[in-house]
Structure formats: structure tokens, C-alpha cells
Sequence to fold (272 residues):
Amino acid sequence: MPIKTPFVAVDGIIQLFDSNDNFQGIVLIERKNPPLGLAIPGGFVEIGESVEDALKREMKEETGLNVEIVRLLGVYSQPDRDPRFHTVSITFVCNGYGRPEAHSDAKEVKIFKLEDIPFDKLVFDHAKILKDYIMR
Amino acid sequence: MPIKTPFVAVDGIIQLFDSNDNFQGIVLIERKNPPLGLAIPGGFVEIGESVEDALKREMKEETGLNVEIVRLLGVYSQPDRDPRFHTVSITFVCNGYGRPEAHSDAKEVKIFKLEDIPFDKLVFDHAKILKDYIMR
Fold:
């Protein structure tokens, strides 16, 4: 019997710091592909790479930033969280350094102070994930 | 381009308690299928179920125990951790109640006090996972 499981993705809440180590806010992307809207940067894990390596690769691909992982925030796996198919998101908090630039699936990269996050514009279950991040 | 990601599995470190709430030890299984050896109970997540539901289902299927999730221990994803194919394990700590019985992929169910775990008999990266559990 062939094994079938949900897809595995990684998402990263990037805490952006400037060159003086001042916190600038978190990095969100305006998605280029459906579902359209604002999202935490992320993407699918490739066969043969660890989730930590996938996270660093995806953050670099979508935002141009090098990141350091701070902690595992959680695993988000409700079957209806992704309207396309069942995706399990392994979500990390990380620190980013440098100047973000939109690439890959990101049409635009935006920085938000925590009190300015537009929760109603977030796709997937990213509003819930960001609330978990702020509350923990 | 079709999406291909590693398989997603859940594993559970079951802290077993008796009817007086005395801690009995943790539950490990002697595997029936390759790789043979001692393992933390676990299995693959099905499409359409959350990782928490998968964890409860797998613990019941392999050990006969009902479990309550205590916390997420970590996500283990080194590509070579499973000799068969790339599997990402989402590992939880949970409490189990009742009398364990071997079912499904478990040939035998065993209870170990933490100081008696035979680390050299564990398959996959379960020795590392159990060390993380004891140290955190």
C-alpha cells in the first residue's frame, strides 16, 4: 500500500533587525500566486533537506534575507487550513538581518510593527499563527 | 510541477500513569516490521487529519492507550533518520492511562523507567529524541 500523507511546509516569522540591532518589525509578503493576500513567508520542504534547511532556503528565496532560527513556534495541520490541499506547516520564529527584497512567490515584502499587523488581510491560518506568536 | 515533500509522521512519548496517578515509566514498542528494534510508538499522518488526531489514533492503534497531549517536543527531519525514505517526525509528549497492549505494528509493548531505557536498542533517531525529552 503506497504511503500518502499531507505535504510538509515551513513558515517563518522573521523578526527584522537593522544594523544597530534595533527591532524593525516582522516581515510579511504579498503573495504572487493564489491564495492572494498577505502571508508569512514559507514554502514546501524538499525531499532530502531538513526543515531547518528548508526554512533558511525559503526565507532567502522569498525575502532575500539570511535568517537565524530562534525557536519552533508550532505545527499547524488543520486539514482545511490551506484551500488547495492538506499542508502541515512547521512554523519557526527567526531573526533576519539585511534589507528584504521580494523574490519567488512574493510580489512585495512588507515590514509591520506588531501593533500594525492587518490580521484581516492574512491568508491561510496565518492570522492564528501570528496571534500565537504574539501571545507566547 | 507536482509537489513532492517528505512523508509526515507523528511519534508519541507516552508517560504512563496508574489509576492512582503514579508515574510508571514511558511506553516503547518492539517493532513487528523493519527496521526491527525498540521504538517510540508512532505512524504516518493521514490526509484529512490533524497531527494531534493522528497522534491519538496511532497511540491507540499501537498500544491500546488513550492519551492526552502534554506538549510538542520537536520536529525531527534529518533526511537519513528513517532508513526507508525521508520522513519528518512531529514528536509529542503525552500522558497515557490504562493498561498497554500491543497491536498493529507493535509486536510487544514495554514500560521503561527513565533510568532503564536501553538507548542502544532504539531504531531511527529515537535515542536522540528520548535524550532530548529527558534533558528538556
Summary: The first helix of chain B runs from residue 51 to 63.
